[in-house]
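# nightly structure sweep
# worker-07 picked up a monomer target from the shared queue
# config: single-sequence mode, recycle default, output format = structure tokens
# input follows
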Amino acid sequence: MPEPSTLIIDACQYCNWSEEILGQLRAGGVDAIHVTVCYHEDFRETVENLIDWNRYFETYASLIMPGRTAADIDAAKASGRTAVFFGLQNCSAIEDDIGLVEILHTLGVRFMQITYNNQSLLGSGCYEPVDAGISRMGKEVIAEMNRVGLVIDLSHSGERTCLESIDISARPVSITHANPSSWHKVARNKSDEVLKALAARGGMLGFSLYPLHLAGGSACTLQSFTAMVAETATKIGVDHIGFGSDLCQGQPDSVVEWMRNGRWTKGGANIGLGKAVFPPQPSWFRDNRDYPLIRDGLAGRGFTTAEVDKIMGRNWYRFFAESFGPTGKH
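# output follows
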């Protein structure tokens, strides 16, 4: 188990939540998670997902609590629980109404992706053949997200959309779950140009542990992964990296169809990812109980104790503390 002074924060999970999985969060010493409450849902459907989470908070009150500010992580840790922060993997929940940005923030949402793979009203996803960058509405929504403290997430956005978002945003932005494309070249991973721009403006990258984002897939070794972490730290600085595992533990394969296809196609989302099934996790990160193995792997790679603490959670804690409040009050 991690020492009491350390923090572990995972900036993206979409598990099929149960008492068993929430218990594993505690067994792994995970102090805070950012959970997905929207893929393709509209506003009302997203609110229904928040209602489900209110039931989880009531039913599993000894394991989890709502997260709204970084201070809630401290409260969760002190009480032996995990703070849960909400995020949207698409902008579909704001529909075509910029006023819903503040409403969703009021309801506890703290991250919103500009796109999820496809073209959205705000920008272009990473699988679009032409990346048109940020739209007129996108510029307005980014400004509103900056104002209220809703963090911009570019995990599924295209190259131009990422670079323009970073440039347009008055506050640091995030890529909560992706890896460098220089390590594993897939559409979802990010170029060095994007990662350097992200860090230069104070942003954060969460390393993904989803096999399709890993060199070698499910067979990726911890040694390869930590070497990638070390190389990224050299390129953009150790203060701008953490984890966003993209763990989808316990989800049925039908969820992969939902993530890829939503309602925009009858099943034609041919994006070169093969059969719509969840690939096995690598042996060194099967679930949240394995975070101590990653900590040990980072230490073995040569990171100092202070650097390991930053990567495991301190960097995200700082980012949360600076990002979730309205402009001028964060």
